[in-house]
Design goal:
It is built from seven helices and eleven strands. By secondary structure, the protein is an alpha+beta fold. The protein has one domain: Ribosomal Protein L22, Chain A, CATH 3.90.470. Helix 5 runs antiparallel to helix 6. Keywords: Transferase.
């Protein structure tokens, strides 16, 4: 099983030196200005993606979504030897991006997630289409100050089984209970994203059993899932899960399903590490699309 795992911290400033070897005309400011507007990178994406990104009102939301789209392009260019500007994507009814061209790579599974400081990408390095991948990342710091955990969880009780709620309640203090909530939420979302269904999916149908109560920077591979309510899109066979701390403020989970008979895929804990990208690495093979968008 061969998977690409990339992580990008959106707090990295985009400097002129990162894009100058590519397209110096993208900069809308004076050449001696070091920091470049993120919107200049819209040139490296097709119009359909640009239109969606420009609808986002918050700069950080656009930055995360922009990086995610660039990571998808970089993956197919670097790993599957495609030409950046020839990639064609569409979206499913559940709004999941899918590759249309080149057609022979249409079954390659990939997924992105972004929250807080990070954008994560996972993609299958093989082309046989037997693997489904989903990833989710959560920022522990995003919480409502002053709430009790009972009040917080009351908004989500229909998403967790009794055993999962007990796991969270037994974690101790409020901060640890929240971390358990985010951990389970990551796991559930990773499955939902792997099977490509919408946000209204019944998360309570999935019950996770956590054997290692404390998360760490080293990937945990012992977590298991049971489908407790039958779902048309999902069985509990062939799944493996990888979860860990990305840093002290963010956790992630990866769901991997082997759709061929033979059980769950094997994950090498030593090899299950995210490669951290910088702007130069992300844009190394970037090529502008026709009729580029340039920041005003």
């Amino acid at each position: 099983m061969s998977i690409t795992r990339w992580a990008f911290n959106i707090r990295q400033p985009l400097l002129l030196e990162h894009i100058e070897p590519l397209v110096t005309s993208l900069t809308s400011s004076e050449k001696n200005d070091a920091i470049v507007p993120f919107s200049n990178l819209l040139s490296f994406l097709p119009k359909m993606d640009c239109d969606r990104l420009l609808e986002l009102r918050q700069e950080e939301d656009m930055r995360r979504a922009l990086v995610g789209r660039l990571m998808i392009h970089a993956f197919f260019t670097v790993v599957h030897s495609c030409r950046w500007e020839n990639l064609v994507f569409s979206r499913t009814e559940a709004n999941k991006p899918v590759l249309v061209e080149p057609a022979h790579l249409a079954n390659v599974s990939f997924n992105i997630s972004h929250h807080g400081d990070w954008v994560l990408f996972v993609g299958a390095n093989t082309t046989d289409g037997t693997m489904r991948l989903g990833v989710d990342v959560m920022d522990f710091q995003e919480q409502v100050p002053g709430e009790s955990f009972e009040t917080f969880l009351s908004c989500f009780q229909d998403q967790f089984t009794a055993a999962e709620q007990a796991f969270m309640h037994n974690a101790g203090v409020y901060a640890q209970q929240l971390r358990c909530f985010y951990r389970l939420w990551c796991l559930k979302e990773s499955v939902v994203k792997a099977i490509g269904v919408g946000i209204d999916y019944n998360l309570k149908a999935l019950e996770f059993t956590v054997s290692d109560p404390e998360e760490s920077l080293k990937p945990i591979l012992s977590t298991s899932m049971q489908v407790v309510e039958p779902q048309e899109e999902l069985t509990d066979e062939g799944w493996a899960f990888e979860e860990a701390l990305l840093d002290q403020n963010h956790c992630y989970a990866i769901a991997i399903q082997n759709e061929m008979q033979g059980g769950a895929p094997a994950i090498d804990a030593e090899g299950a590490k995210f490669q951290h990208l910088d702007w130069k690495g992300l844009l190394k093979h970037a090529v502008p699309y026709p009729s580029p968008y340039v920041a005003a």
